[in-house]
Amino acid sequence: MRPRGALHVSPAGVEYKPFVDVNRLFLILFPRIAWNVFWITRTIAAFAPHHHGDE
Questions:
Q1: How far from 27 is each of 3, 17, 18, 35, 40, CA to CA, in Å?
Q2: Quick check: helix, strand or coil at residue 40?
Q3: 46 partner at 20 to 30 Å CA-CA among 9, 11, 28, 39?
Q4: How many CB atoms within 10 Å of residue 40?
Q5: How far is the C-alpha of 38 from the C-alpha of 44, rounded, in Å?
Q6: Residue 45: in which H helix or E strand, if any?
């Protein structure tokens, strides 16, 4: 189990500051973004008019 953040205690009060793991965030988001780009471009290609160059 890894720490998720830190508690900052001061006379003004207690504040929770979460840790942001950029590498883990990238590993989660990159495949999802790539999957969306793939399906969006495939959908556009399916509905776009096809030009064969013989016009």
A1: 19, 22, 19, 13, 21
A2: helix
A3: 28
A4: 10
A5: 10
A6: helix 22-47
Query: Strand ranges (DSSP E) for the chain?
Result: 5-10, 13-18
- List, for residues 1-55, the tens digit of each pLDDT value: 788 899 999 999 999 999 988 998 999 999 999 999 999 999 999 998 877 765 5
**Under a CB-based contact definition with an 8 Å cutoff, are residues 2 and 18 in contact?**
no
Cα separation of 49 and 33, whole Å? Answer: 26
DSSP structural state of residue 1: -
Per the structure block, which two tokens stand in for 3? Answer: 């720490």
Specify the pTM.
0.54
